Amino acid sequence: MTTLSARRLALLVAANTALAPLAIDAYLPAMPSLAASIGASVPHTELSLSVFLLGFALGQLICGPLSDRFGRKPVLMLGLGVFFIASLALTQVGSLATLWGWRFVQALGGGACVVNSAAIVRDRFSGREAAKVMSTMVMILMMAPLVAPAIGSALLHLADWWLIFLFLAVYAAFVLWLLGRYLPETHGRDPQAPSARQILGNYVSVLRHREAMGYIGAVSMSFAGMFAFITGSPYLYMEHYGLSTTLYPFVFGANILIMASSSRLNIRLLKTRTPQQNLLLGLGVQLTAGLLLVAMVATGLDSIFTIAPLMVVFVGMQGLISPNAMSSMLDHFPRMSATATALQGCLQFTCGAVSGALVGAFELASAWPTVLTMLGATLLGNVAVRVLAGRALKNRVGPDEATS
User: Fold this and answer.
1) Which residues contact 96 (CB under 8 A, 6 or more apart)?
2) Is 401 within the bounds of a domain?
3) Going by C-beta distance under 8 Å and a sequence separation of 6 or more, which residues neighbour residue 182?
4) CB neighbour list of residue 97: distance below 8 Å, 6 or more residues apart
5) Do residues 351 and 293 touch, judged by C-beta distance below 8 A?
6) Domain check: are 210 and 262 in the same one?
7) pTM of the entire structure?
8) DSSP codes of every residue in 19-77
9) Amino acid 107: pLDDT
10) How confident is the model at residue 2 (pLDDT cuts 50, 70, 90)?
11) What is the rounded end-to-end Cα distance, in angstroms, of the chain?
12) How far apart are CA 6 and CA 2, in angstroms?
């Protein structure tokens, strides 16, 4: 595959994967309006986000093995179709129960889309090449959370909350057409399809793979730290540190820009470094930022001018951590990459949901819940990869990457 084809593949996969951040972030500005429309409280309406994360994790667990069995494209098309139908249904919800129900169904379809993205890349590439393509994909993908709230706010002013879900349905239909026309099948139907028992066995085999679980732990806990920031940042920035609502989107957007920049940096570094080296670099910088965040709060030196830059560095390291951890993990499962990705995605979003709940559970009027959860997450990620994958990491520190 040529470089142009690799970039085209990254664009197609990123367009598909962007469904998830768009579905999560685009309707956030409409929470009060949506809550009033369905006769529910805003906190209960916000629980639809947790319901989405749960469905998203489950959708990946279910659709990963189906993708390995029936091929990437059929499962991907089915997931996009489910997402499209649920998005249309969400434009008509009139109660909290129907909102939760259709958000769950929408997330199941979104999980089928995302679990196939990494698997499609792994079908065509491995090692450094897979990490490069995933970095391009992540760099493009990071723009979705940056623009999603702005899109949601604009649509809310044009009409009401229902227009946001209609936008998601139209976007899903466009991606369905785009991938149906331009994306080739990268993993056809497997004539030796695994049974339900074998599928469970495949999940167990991933869980028992020491090195792979180190990479999964790294990316999952890094994501948990990022989600702790996402959950805590509105209160932390606007109420605790007094940032205006006008400036908040710009300060928040800096995280996405640095993430995209670190993804681009990762591509350049992969010319001379292994994915494992870049992974350790990203984790090390993130841990340092986490320690400095706690130190700032402990010493009373915390302010928007000291905390926000450290938050940007912490979250921005996703561009170095995520693609390298994913490609390193998938190198061990060439015949069941979607199954491995499904388990990784399930654990990642579960960790994100738990970290977000931890930030909100204490209800303390301080920065401590957010910064301690972030530090704890990155500390666990660093420990996981060094303890579980330590021996393999030592064998891959040279310029010539060892093959799995």
Assistant:
1) 38, 39, 40, 44, 45
2) no
3) 8, 12
4) none
5) no
6) yes
7) 0.73
8) HHHHHHHTTGGGHHHHHHHHT--HHHHHHHHHHHHHHHHHHHHHHHHHHHHH-HHHHHH
9) 93
10) very low
11) 22
12) 6
The answer on 367 and 227 residing in a single domain is yes
Residue where one domain finishes, among candidates 142, 174, 193: 193
Helix/strand/coil for 302: coil
pLDDT in tens, 74-133: 889 999 999 999 999 999 999 999 999 999 999 999 988 887 777 787 777 777 777 777
Please indicate, yes or no, whether residues 163 and 247 belong to a single structural domain of this protein: no
- pLDDT tens sequence across 265-302: 998 999 899 999 999 999 999 999 999 999 999 999 99
Q: What confidence score (pLDDT) does residue 399 get?
A: 44
User: Are the beta carbons of 144 and 22 closer than 8 angstroms?
Assistant: yes
Both tokens of residue 120?
Answer: 């499609």
- The pair of structure tokens assigned to 298 is 């402990």
- Domain of 259, CATH number, reads 1.20.1250.20
Residues across the chain: 404
* CA–CA distance, 134 with 76 (Å, rounded to integer): 18
Residue where a domain terminates, one of 175, 193, 211: 193
| CB 324, CB 266: distance < 8 Å | yes
